[in-house]
Amino acid sequence: MKDTPIPHIPVAIVGGGQAGLSVACQLKTKGIESVVFERHEKFHSWRVNRWDSFCLVTPNWQCRLPGFHYDKEFGGKDPDGFMLRAEITDYLDAFVATFEPNIYEHVNVTRIAHHPQGGYVVETSVGTWTCDQVVIATGGYDKPIEPAYAEALDPTIVQMHSVDYRNPSQLPDGDVLIVGTGQSGVQIMEDFIRAGRGVHLAVGPAPRSPRKYRGRDAIDWLHDAGHYKITIDTHPDPVKALTQTNHYMSGRDGGKEIDLRKWHVDHGVELYGSLANMAGHKLEFLPDLTRNLDDADRSYVGIRDQIDGYIARNGIDAPEEPPFVKVWEPSCERTELDLKETGITSVLWAIGFRPDYDWIEVDVFDARGKPKFNRGVTDVPGFHFIGLGWLNTWGSGRFLGIEEDSAHLAEQIDLQLQSAGTRAVA
């Protein structure tokens, strides 16, 4: 009895989010066959890994999937608004319906390695394929981050990571400590305040941004000024760009900026520095609250200054804004906290994620385990990445840049297939 031959595909795409499916769309336009492998269902992170009140932080007009822009092909009526979770998935599903990709859902890719005869072997939970080209589109949100000392916390204190959070009712009555002040942490903070819950916030080094400034959304000003066209190769501080946490602000209720000082004054949010340790029901914080608040404000004022400069250089008539004033400053740095004495019954981790590339047996990583590439194209022929922050510009890894990034990658794949003589037409 003859062995069943292993199926071959020109391009294997791992990850069925907007990045991987954008590449599939661009390849199909070029007549190149691809298969997308998704371990859950397409757009899983948008459907499942978001809380109930989640909405975009960037305005809807930045949703620019290949040939399917929010305010054009999708026909969106609120380009300056911020889509809710269900609206985002409606947009994504409508995009996929325009080209019907070849996607295997609920299939886990367990190994990718070089094939002895050239190309790659892709092992999955439902079988093995070979391919000429590989695109890794799994993003950087595989492993939720929780520090090792979290295991030393009193087990009566409920712990949850933001990936599992949906609404305040999941956590027991009492105050909550939210660890992390990126976009997730500050937006979840507002959820608990609206629910009438006491909130304590461990403030990290995340920067913040204005929302509306001088008559327009700050993102609109920055877009017009060419800020989002800066590439990582031309960025004045590429290390900072690659390592800095996203600026925090909100798209809720039409969009708002988040000043943690005001949330302390107006809503009683208790602020601490970076969390440093846990033991039983006692916590330790670094004495860096003042510095972290000041650094966030410095970023905020810097963006305002950048917009002011653009307005002045171009002679634009725009309303003036009063200068930024701190509404509150810490009188001391609180470095210790007793959860039971304070009435905190739960801890919510919002300190991010790590990627998982353990299943990739191809030499495309640096000594720290980070992928090495130029605009997603690695030095190993036929191996590529998409959907990562600053793949090329600020918009990489976001809706704004995925059309350009996926078009570039599809072009590189096409050239490599032609060069190798393996160009196949879908």
Structure notes:
- With 426 residues, the protein is α/β, with parallel strands linked by helices.
- It is 27% helix and 20% strand.
- It has two domains: 8-142 and 355-420, FAD/NAD(P)-binding domain; 145-349, FAD/NAD(P)-binding domain (3-Layer(bba) Sandwich), CATH 3.50.50.
- It contains ten helices and 22 strands.
- Strands 1, 2, 5, 6, 7, 8, 21 and 22 form an eight-stranded mixed β-sheet that branches.
- Strand 7 and strand 8 form a beta hairpin.
- The model has no long low-confidence stretch (mean pLDDT 95).
Mean of all residue-level pLDDT scores: 95
- Beta percentage is 15-25%
Structural class: alpha/beta
Biggest sheet, in brief? 8 strands, mixed
Query: What form results from the Cα inertia axes?
Result: globular
CATH architecture of the largest domain: 3-Layer(bba) Sandwich
What's the total count of β strands? 22
- For the record, give the distance between the C-alpha atoms at the N and C termini, rounded to a whole number: 31 Å
Radius of gyration: 23 Å
- CATH fourth-tier homologous superfamily of the largest domain: FAD/NAD(P)-binding domain
Indicate the low-confidence ranges by residue numbers.
none
The tally of helices reads 10
Proportion of residues in helical segments: 25-40%
CATH C-level category of the largest domain:
Alpha Beta
Number of domains: 2
Stated plainly, the CATH topology of the largest domain is called FAD/NAD(P)-binding domain
Protein name: MSMEG_0569 family flavin-dependent oxidoreductase
Keywords: Oxidoreductase
Organism: Sulfitobacter porphyrae
InterPro entries: Auxin_biosynth/cation_transpt, CHP04046_FMN-dependent, FAD/NAD-bd_sf
